[in-house]
Amino acid sequence: MSEESDDDMPELVAADVSKVPVTVITGFLGAGKTTLLNYILTEQHGKKIAVILNEFGEGDSIEKSMSVGEEGELFEEWLELRNGCLCCSVKDNGVKAIENLMQKKGKFDYILLETTGLADPGPIASIFWLDEELCSDVYLDGIVVMVDAKFCERHIDEKKEDGSVNECQKQIALGDVIILNKTDLVSAEQLSKLKDLIRSVNNFAKIVETSHSNINPESILDINAYGLSGDTKMEDIFTQRGYSTEDKHIIDQSVGTITVQIPGSISKCALDDFLQTLLWEKTIKNSTGNIIEILRLKGSMCIEGSDRRLVVQAVEELYDSHTTTVWEDDQPRSSTVVFIGEHCHRILGSLKKFDMFKLAAVRVV
Ligand SMILES: Nc1nc2c(ncn2[C@@H]2O[C@H](COP(=O)(O)OP(=O)(O)OP(=O)(O)O)[C@@H](O)[C@H]2O)c(=O)[nH]1
Predict the structure, then answer these.
(1) Do 56 and 93 meet the contact criterion of CB atoms below 8 Å apart?
(2) What are the recorded GO MF terms, alphabetically (predicted)?
């Protein structure tokens, strides 16, 4: 481990100590989310965990928020979800659930939020990630996606009538950890094929195989996927995996992962210009003429005039950046960007039109 003085420590490390981490647990219907929650709540992990469940039934739609106290006591609150659509109405209700929960601050030190099987985790995650008011109390630690090893292949292939990305692909794309559950129901061969399929969508997430959601809580809690961790991990992608072609990980999915490395340093203005065109204007097309729709983006950037890395995180159209670790003298300067989204293959030609990709010998994994 490198020895850092207090002055070298990134600002966020200190700021996060008083905040409560939130892990969003999502996954298709019946994949094993509740089994996972029950498992974690009974495991020894030294944490006092509060749980928020988002559920909506056929008729009345309700969001049940419950919290498990230190002594195992349970207190509950019920919040209306007006139209039963989690994605549209979760913003206000989700904030309220957390605010109510935070009044019990001190009784818990971790929040798990289980979404319904059909939810898009993007809007839910952004509440905890970038909501100004809540962010003083909580922060998004990561998104955990439960995948049903038996039925995932069918769900991932489902075509939506409007041609949009199906929920299963969206969830996998946004996962920081993907739990491949129900491994007892498939053969080793099926499992290996499914892993390739998942990797074809999200090649950056950690995949953990489980049966009956039995998982070491350390694999999913305190991973800090939206914080400072991961900057050097991104750089390692190139040293560990070496070179491969742009399309290697895109099997037959519209959603895929592409990692791009830009040697040298880039200007912050050029980075913002690119991100805003990509995420807000959504006008960048790949070489097949399809608009690139980002679901998740992570970048570890080398910025001109700065001696520290800049980590960029994006979920759909939202993005944020933080200065992190110092570049050591002997570390080659480069930026690494992981794109996960729709039509992310064959994008190099389009990227070259932007200043930050222009000069460098850009590489793609
Ligand atoms: N064989 C097998 N069954 C499992 C496994 N994990 C969970 N189950 C069973 O699968 C069913 C669904 O599990 P849940 O934990 O309720 O799944 P969920 O994702 O919370 O389901 P929804 O809330 O309906 O989306 C239950 O009957 C579980 O006992 C597993 O690894 N193997």
Answers:
(1) no
(2) GTP binding; hydrolase activity
